[in-house]
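Exam revision sheet. Question 4 asks you to relate a sequence to its structure. Input first:
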Amino acid sequence: MPQRDQKLPEPLSSAARWRLLGVLLATMFMSLVSVSIVNVVLPSIESTLGATEADMQWVLAGYALTFGVVLVAAGRAGDVLGRGVMFVAGVIIFTLSSIFAGLAPDPTSLNIARFIMGFGSGLLNPQVMGMIQQHFKGHERGRAYGLLGTVIGVSVAIGPVLGGFLIGWLGPDAGWRWTFLINVPVGIIAVLLALMWLPRPLLIRGTGKLDLDPVGGVLLAVGLLAFLLPFVQGRENPALWALLVVGLAILVFWVYWEKKYKARGRAPMVELSLFKVSSFTNGSLIAGLYFMGVSSVWVLVAIYVQSALDFSALEAGLICLPAALLSAVSSQLAGNYVMSIGRKMIVFGTASALFGLLATVAVVELEARAGLNIWWMMLALSFIGLAQGFIISPNQTLTLMEVPLENSGSAGGLMQTSQRIGTAVGIAVITAIFYGVNHISGWTNAMSLSFAAIALLVLITMCVAIGDLRRGQRDEAAVS
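Answer key, structure tokens:
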């Protein structure tokens, strides 16, 4: 790929690498908790700000949209301009917007702040992937991605616990505000440590012409926005579903543009030849399918136990706590063994998730029909938490393993975009099933059928993972 003449960041010692990883993972945790923590505090925001249903939908959707739309462009900018400077910029934007969100006087102000938070999070996340890819090799890279998987898995499950605790401790108004304000000290410390520990130079200064492919960036952003918007707002405004066709058409034209741009000897925003790498393509597909299903689990559990069973926000979070802890444990195990049995762990993880989903359905049905204590759901959800560690971190490692370093930022952005698309599509479809069935036949059937739909998506993910395992075994046999 044509690049400017660059002074690359200096190599890091072993101690400096792990110190840097701590900063990256703490910041990543902060940004991802902001996705899941909102699930349990929405009723408090609604009551204290006088927000409408549409306002509440945008609290979730605004962050998810800007986060998903900016990922690939941010990854490309990090590859070209320097991952350090993009990371610091993302953390600063995220931290400042967290202050505005926590102090928001009305729903409109809160939603504007959430849009900006998503933008900051989208800037910093691909740089984490890129810097792990840049500074860690071999088994160390597997361990680093194992820790990253721990952060992702725990952030998804611990967010509701933390949100519920803050609501219970500080009350509805101060509680939801502090779910945003707790980001501020983490962000400030992260910026200071990043400025001290990130390899120099933070900003890559080249002598050649800077080529960021701005047309490709705009096309991809607009195409993704048009594609994702119906899934996050289509239930409130059905006319938005027409944007699906528009979004797909723009994305097709984006692919055409990228091919022509490279044919002219320029550096495209995304190196489309990445999709010729089987491990990258299969891993991105696994990520998208898995997040399409399992991301809805924690949303549905929070809604179900609070709306149908009158749980408090804290109780709704606590029922997911064992899943969060097991996710941390399994991510660590996965990081240690990813280089030897990574693909087998992904298959095992999908099997564990499938069992956990079916066990949760059994608990819900037995609670409704035979009086079983609903807290047995903690055990059922634990199998899903266990699965997250065995799927997310090994899949990230294997997906990016064969990606060239100069494309690692945009490749990481693409993989995370597949996760965001999967999450947006899955939550829209699964929650539509959930609310639709609830209106017809009640909470129990709504929960059971929604989890059955998620189980089907996990089953499809397992099939792709088995195919990827067999491909890997064939490749190893051919080499030997």
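Marking note for examiners. The chain is about 80% helix and 0% strand.
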